[in-house]
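Re: beginner question about structure tokens

> Can someone show what the tokenized structure looks like for a real chain? I only ever see the sequence side.

Sure, here's an example I had lying around. Input first:
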Amino acid sequence: MKRGKPLAAAQLYRHCDPAIFSFESTAELDRRTSIPGQQRAIEAIQFSMESEPDGFNLFVLGSAGSGRHHLVRQILEQQAAARSAADDWCYVNNFANPQKPRALRLPAGWGNDFKKEIEQLIEEAGNAISAALESEDFQTRQQAIEEEFKEQQSDSFNQIKAHAEARKIAIVETPTGFTFTPLLKGDDGREAEFDNLSEQQKLQIQKDIEELSLELRRFLQSTPKRLHEARRRSRELEQEVSRLTLGGLTDEIFRKYRDHAGVMTHLQRMQSDIVEHVELFRTTPEQKNQMLMSLLEGQAQGGSTQRSAVMQRFEINLLIDHNDHRAAPVVFEDHPTFSNLIGRVEHQARMGVLTTDFHMIRAGALHRANGGYLVLDVRKVLLQPLAWEGLKQALKSRQIKIRSLGEDLSLISTASLEPEPIPLRVKVVLMGERIYYYLLQKHDPEFQELFKVAADFEDDFERNDHNSRLFAHLIAEYVSEDKLRPLDKFAVARLLEESSRHAGDAEKLSGQVRYATDIVREAHYWAGKRGKDVIGSDEIQSAIDARIRRVSRIRDRMQEEMLRDTILIATAGVCTGQVNGLSVLQLGEYA
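And the corresponding structure tokens:
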């Protein structure tokens, strides 16, 4: 039987020569975006991010700890920096149909200014309109309308009264209305009894009363019409005064937003609604007294209830504000529920009843990432009810339509809002284990349509001088980000050796970036305990030894049983009917 050539211990472990590094510590190295050995994945990510057609969203495959989040974040931030900031979005009251609030698009950073301008406009409009409606000129014109109505009423009634007096009939006002009674006088000038009159006189009186009753009935029937006409003229006068007052206040804001059709439409509708509901701005005597009492008591918010109601009708719900942003948004959503993705409409309990309005519309991750990039963990998305379906529907329709999850599942029937959908332009990045990619590709026909690009991260990569230097730059970047002590080149060399051992191949380096960076973080602790400003190879070794010791209890027990011959393992010699075997036991992080 031919026997294999035994391996020397030196052949089982490949040392790293620190001389391949030109630095003394990682503090001298610049930051690099690239992770060594992941060029294939980097090319796929860049292609997806630069592709404009729909459906070229990205799925990043790879095991946890491969540095995929770190690399994707860096590439996305670089891509985002080359693009302008996304638009601001806000919801406003739909005066024609409050159940369907309207969405307004504004350039980045304009949303907050627009909100403040509207609040200031409403405040100024309230003061100006209230003052105009209390002015002497307005009161005189309105009083003229009232006097004209009263004069018409008086003339008509006096005409009926004159007709009655001419026929010797009196109009008597009673608790139930008006009635007619004849003025009877005999030949001697004294009052006569109706029963003593002749039949012809009785018939004439009854006829006169019927004619007068008809005339009075027509007068009473025409009174509401005259009153309505007087109120109409009074309201038209209020609206005319309000329209003229608003004109001077809105000129500036109309000029500023004249190139934004949606905003201009809303401003015009808001102006019309203010004129139509001018009574909201009128201060009643009771409110004046309340304001006076509040001022006397030292409260500055007299009449705040009325002002609050007016402001709520016209103010802006600023959904997305990019005031402080100079680049396209990059959003990592850690809790991708249905509502957290597409937004939600909140409700408030008032007097035992759930109510809502456009102020309670809240943005989701798709709103925040609109015009930029959204990164999601595919496992978390799939675990949330309807989150995956909601995401696909938004990507297919290219719009964000806020709706209630309870309504979709027919769990509740509470009346809610139907906000106007917002156009969606976003690049979505899903990250997860390979099994999720292959299962979705096989069982979900829409997946391949929406996620056409896959970036597959390597589990390990070739160990050569070039990749070793890239590895050093990568470690330097993590050290800088986490504000750790720098590593000298001997520490980096020892870390490379451990990475190769972790890969299980002397010719490879492990793609598990997290494993290496966790060792560096522990080495930072040991360097601190030893009073060192730079992490050396001894600190790296101490971190490795400490990690092994923490999880080696079972290994130590098994070795103890071997030494006690409880577990028998033959590693030499010949035995009939026995086959040599090698097995590796792994529990958690240790094998």
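Each token stands for a local structural state, so reading them left to right follows the chain. The chain has three domains: 8-37+462-568+583-591, 38-86+325-457, 110-317.
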